[in-house]
Amino acid sequence: MSKPLEAKPARIRTLEEYHAAYRQATEDPDAYWGAAAEAFTWRKKWDTVRGGEFSPAGTSTWYAGGLLNITENCLDRHLAQRGNKLALIYEPNDPHTRHLRLTYRELYQQVCQFANVLKNNGVQKGDRVLLYLPMMPQLAVAMLACARIGAIHSVVFAGFSATAIADRVQDAGATVVITADGLNRGPKQIPVKSVVDEALLSCPDVRRVIVLNHLDWPTHMREGRDVWYHEEVEGVEKTCPAEALAAEDPLFILYTSGSTGKPKGVVHTQAGYMVWADYTFRNVFQIEENDVHWCTADLGWVTGHTYCLYGPLLAGATSLLFEGVPTYPDAGRFWEVIDKHQVTTFYTAPTAIRSLMAAPLDHVLSYSLSSLRVLGSVGEPINEEAWHWYDLHIGKGRCPIVDTWWQTETGGIMISALADVTPSVPARAGLPLPGVLPVLLAQDGTEIEGNDQEGYLAIKASWPGVIRTTWGDHERARQTYFAPYPGYYFTGDGARRDENGLFRIIGRVDDVINVSGHRFGTAEIENALNQNEHVVESAVVGYPHDVKGQGIYAYIICQHGVPATEAERKMFEASIIETVVAEIGKIAKPDKIQLVSGLPKTRSGKIMRRILRKVAEGETTNLGDVTTLLDPAVVDEILAGKK
Ligand code: WT7
């Protein structure tokens, strides 16, 4: 059943090959992506490579008619040749705790065993399983175990609040939750199970909670609902036949914020996502057999899904999972881990680079970093200063940097250099991958031709990793991504095509802010703020932040007006922050709160965010047209009270 990896379409190794591949994928996508899928294990080959309608319906299909299981391609396929090769290396939060290594065979056995545990607990194909776990191998195992039996995993980053978990459990209709007693984050130990317990008070449909004992914490187990992970796996079979799934059966749901309403469940399916994860991983990082790949993202985000787990395993590579944070026990931790495990391809976020740049350089200089071959960046635009620091001090000027632009909705990397193959220029994501047809649109939807131009970034044709739907509400996906500009997928980003045709991503053009590479809708944070009993109205905007990229600036009208005393102000602010932490999680805490008596509104009652954004950015003189304001005095008050 297993095929040698060499049978895969050759990796793109030169600029000429890139151009040829790009041309072929554009002119004959069926042939190109058909060939790319040949090397995988299929139970039944597909009938059509591409199908459905890309836009405005947003009903793309890939490899329809095919039957497969992604875990057979991540695991079984490698056993003959790579059974004893390391699949996962786990580096714990505390450097003095022993790390763990899992070969492909061991991972295969653990996945099969846990798949049997899921079955024993009544989980069936199509069921939704919510995972709220620390960044550990057991999370990877649980994801793959779901995939093995055709259950749909929805991982929620273990920093979200009980309310956020409950929203996601309910939206996904999850009936089983997998979690842990607690987790380590740097010097802190954080309860996890008690957060889940609180969430599940409003989720009566969850009938089973499987709890991993990670910290040996006293944990309340609810009779009849909660069971221990280690007890469940005891004596269970380590083989489990993989369910033959349809190419378009859902693989996972991952919640992400948009400009309106609650986070939506982005759905990716079996076959297209598999081909895209594998293809982009191997080509962007130019993966070789002996690479040790480290993507520092948590598995709770799409970057973790595609480049900690699925991409590396599909390619038969070794992937490092890190439980900790970049600054614990000190700002040298990343560099220590790179030396310790001889990491070759390193993939992190600009916010991490900027925070480590601020620490004394000694933290870097104590390590050799000589194993590194390729450096990657993801999540937000990387500023030139951070790019050069990364290049000089981490890559020692000899590692190509791939600045990878993509989104939860795109499944994998879309615009990026291929390491040492296509151009890597500071502050440019670069050229699109084969199969990706990016265009710049003017406000009226017309394509902007030529170089040295700026516009809304949109994608003109379907690619295998495209979002298939938003869970339970296809209309929302259609409206958000495919209807705004019929014929295109709308990214929500603004971009510039430079004089050489390389793309530079400017940032979001919608009401989404990107805080340390995490996406939040301004409306989502406002909804959370408005839950506070003292808050009458709020408006949230992003502003430039040295480390986080963007910070959260909240303008708030309090019930009793602007507080008269400093003590009162502090009390309000603390209470407001507490509300956001409870509604969303610590990651959405406003960086600045300004209590105001009014918000700048037009006569029709619309908040003029443009003005609020300018003030938050520190612009005080050039506020643009304010003549349509209902009450211009509000602006003077806001300017006077600016944080
Ligand atoms: C948004 C997607 C999947 C990547 C992790 C975040 C921004 C992402 C870059 C980059 C400039 C970037 C965009 C995008 N973004 N990568 N290399 N350069 N901006 O995934 O949470 O779905 O956010 O992140 O604004 O729309 P996400």
Automatic annotation (TrEMBL):
Domain (Acetyl-coenzyme A synthetase N-terminal) ranges: 18-74
Molecular function terms from GO: acetate-CoA ligase activity
Record InterPro entries: Ac_CoA_lig, ACAS_N, AMP-bd_C, AMP-bd_C_sf, AMP-binding_CS, AMP-dep_synth/lig_dom, ANL_N_sf
Keywords linked to the UniProt accession: Acetylation, ATP-binding, Ligase, Nucleotide-binding
Keyword ATP-binding applies: yes
Segments forming domain AMP-dependent synthetase/ligase: 76-461
Record domain AMP-binding enzyme C-terminal: where: 524-606
EC number: 6.2.1.1
Family from the record: Belongs to the ATP-dependent AMP-binding enzyme family.
PANTHER family: ACETYL-COENZYME A SYNTHETASE (PTHR24095), ACETYL-COENZYME A SYNTHETASE 1 (PTHR24095:SF14)
Protein name according to UniProt: Acetate--CoA ligase
Organism field: Hymenobacter caeli
